[in-house]
Amino acid sequence: MSGKKKEIQLQATITNQNEWDEMLLTKGVVVIDVYQAWCGPCIAVVNLFRKLKNEFSEDDVLHFAVAEANSIETLQPLRNRCEPVFLFCVNGKIIAMVRGANAPLISKKITELVQEEREIVAGQKERPEVDELTFLEEKSSEDSIEETVPEEEVTYSVGIIKPDDVLEGHVEEIKQKIRDAGFGIAASEEKMLTEEQIREFYTQKKEQHDFDDFVQFMMSGPCHILLITKKKGTDAIPLWKELRESLEGTPDESGKSERPEETPETESILNMCDVQSSIEDASRQLAFFFPNFGQKKTEQKFEKTLALVRPCLLRERRDSIIQRIKDDGFEIAMQKEINLSEEQAREFYKEHENEDYFPFLLEQMTNGPTLVLALTRENAVAHWRNLLGPKTIEEAKKENPNSLRAQYAVDNIPINQLHGSSSPNDAQKELEFFFPQEHTLALIKPDAAKKHKDDIMQKVKDAGFTISKIKEEALTREMATKFYKDHEGKPFFEELVALMTEGPSVVMVLTKENAVQEWRQLMGPTDPEVAKESSPESIRAQFAQDILSNAVHGSSTREHALESIECIFGEVGELMYRIEGMATAR
């Protein structure tokens, strides 16, 4: 349904294709801020636009608008961009584009277009024939008006800034050094690396005597992962070596290195950002750390987002809202009902604590169970936000009466009844708040480890688990007895222990939201014959022999997982749960 275009302060809001087509009929110059749903319009240029509007206020020649790329078909090539994009429309045609909040360039372009339009209206010059701008998916320029030139090909390398530099705040300095040396940074992410990821990335160092200590150091805090680029035709790996050599200094005639004066910058650069030593390794690591990089910008991305159904709505219309969510193409990946304490509600909504409605929001969020949902689909964050509609009930009913917040408003309650993450980054943080990462113990039994190890490991990875720790060893009788203590005294107990100790097992710590239950679901029912009927894609349905030799073992509860991890991995397992407990209590 096409809504009416509404003037919000100085910028009109364009929310669909019909309003876009209507905007093209506007006389004069229209400057459109094209934004992504997850980040919103560019606030940095609003003061500039207000100033220009005042300067050119004697006639109605200059107009401003904001348009969400995901909701307008014409803007499809501009979707999934991280930088702001500004379009310039004159006489029904988009004739220029600026990428990035480049205020001087935007101001210069607006001034030129307004002056020219005034001259045309006054009859001082004829309107020139101008070709409409064609949006190209791969165009790139932050500092100039877009021209239709293809983007140069680049090569990619993955770099890791180590935990000590992250902790000491050297990340931005290091990034700038990399850029100054002629490299680009296409993507970056701060994250805790698992032992598996560290050993994989630094496999060339595994024979060094202190490698295990190094792995523990790399797990001691967050690392910063960079996707480093260099224009094709230059070899990114040798150029990176040259950067390191220039920082380390070059030998003089006496054979000593002439190093630059040591500063926190140069010292951290030397040890900061490790990259692979070959193009093959770099390609492998690109897929390992940035698996979705390289997809076309216009492709839909499969995402998770958080949805909250607040207590009043949950009590009155639970089934209706869940059905509506499913009808709109969302899958419910995880869900739980939780009675939030005031402390938890304050923590989750701390950004709103200075708002007038905050006390009422706290009261509403703590007066009964809240339904917490992890929703998945293509571009889930933007779709859910669009489905929710405006934040206030009044605006939702006026501007988008078909939105969920309008249709599921509760009488006599002034705040909306549904929450959605505002960006992919917020979605990740909010999902971790309600669904913290869990660890569980998983074991591939000796017979299955011998015959089906690779296939089972692949199913583990395909299911989205991170293998935080792994080793292959034969269980002692004491270990096997501890794993199956609940079965002690049963007729099959001795046979089960014998099967578990007849050869090496593959023992893993698996990490994921809701890991204990997710792993049990992937394993399938204990009896493989039942598994084949009820869960044909499960591991036991595909790889188990019988009810005792049923391929895999998994912890039944979080407490059981803790005990089992401590039994196999000792204090490291205990530390994992200590960290997780802190996250859960947050």
UniProtKB/TrEMBL annotation:
Gene: NME8
Organism (species): Anser brachyrhynchus (Pink-footed goose)
Example GO molecular function: nucleoside diphosphate kinase activity
PROSITE patterns: NDPK_LIKE
Pfam families reported in the protein's UniProt record: NDK (PF00334), Thioredoxin (PF00085)
Annotated Nucleoside diphosphate kinase-like domain residues: 152-296, 302-436, 437-576
Active-site feature positions: 419 (pros-phosphohistidine intermediate), 553 (pros-phosphohistidine intermediate)
Positions with biased composition (Basic and acidic residues): 245-262
Protein's name in the database: NME/NM23 family member 8
